[in-house]
Design goal:
Layout lengths: L6 H15 L6 E6 L2 E9 L2 E10 L3 H9 L4 H4 L3 E11 L2 E8 L8 E12 L2 E8 L12 E2 L1 E11 L5 E10 L6 H23 L13
Parallel strand pairs: 6-8
Antiparallel strand pairs: 1-2, 2-3, 3-10, 4-5, 5-6, 6-7, 7-9, 9-10
Length: 213
């Protein structure tokens, strides 16, 4: 969270992909490339919510270990320059502060979020939303990203792969035009998934105290 897959397995992935990747009502297809599919839908104020999906081998524990490794975040989450857990509320709940490098001439962004995860009959699910801003007031030289809601959903398949789906909406604030925000959101989701797939392999032997697989 070995990527070498034989041709039979690839064929099975492609067959499996169609029902899993079918867009829910309201989702519009954007692109499919290198095993990663992007959809989007209107959210609010002419901004879009983005959904990314792919199949890749991973355990839930390996994925979560990578996700919680703040030293690695900047290596796979697009444009992240740093991340730190400010508070662990429970073994499955955290308050996280994240900083993003914005392309010139935009101002850098930061984000304060609450995350919680669970495993049930549907698989592994991690939800991210705004945390109370009083925990960490706005920082100098950063625009605070607000109205954040994101969900990671993982489901193991019988062919040894895991279907990973990520939906996200966030209002970056500032003066960027909405068309550019939407374009960057789709591109960022794809880059993040490409990086995620590359980073997952070393974590596959890791266990996690809160996950029994």
């Amino acid at each position: 969270m070995n990527l070498c897959i034989n041709s039979a397995c690839i064929a099975l992935m492609l067959l499996s992909f169609q029902p899993l990747a079918s867009p829910e009502r309201g989702w519009t297809f954007d692109s499919a490339d290198n095993g990663i599919t992007i959809h989007f839908r209107e959210h609010s104020d002419d901004l879009v919510e983005v959904k990314a999906q792919m199949f890749t081998p991973t355990t839930y524990a390996g994925f979560l270990r990578l996700l919680q490794n703040t030293d690695k975040v900047s290596e796979w989450v697009d444009n992240v320059s740093g991340s730190v857990v400010l508070k662990q509320i429970s073994p499955s709940e955290n308050i996280v502060y994240t900083q993003f490098s914005a392309p010139w001439p935009a101002k850098d962004r930061d984000m304060l979020t609450y995350s919680t995860f669970r495993i049930d009959a549907e698989g592994f699910r991690l939800e991210i939303s705004d945390a109370p801003q009083s925990i960490l007031p706005p920082q100098a030289d950063y625009i605070r990203i607000t109205s954040v809601h994101a969900v990671w959903q993982l489901k193991k398949l019988t062919n040894g792969n895991t279907h990973i789906e990520y939906t996200v909406f966030a209002d970056p604030g500032g003066a960027l035009p909405n068309w550019l925000i939407n374009k960057l959101a789709k591109e960022s989701a794809r880059t993040t998934f490409e990086n995620l797939r590359a980073q997952l392999a070393p974590f596959q032997t890791d266990e996690h105290p809160e996950i029994n697989e």
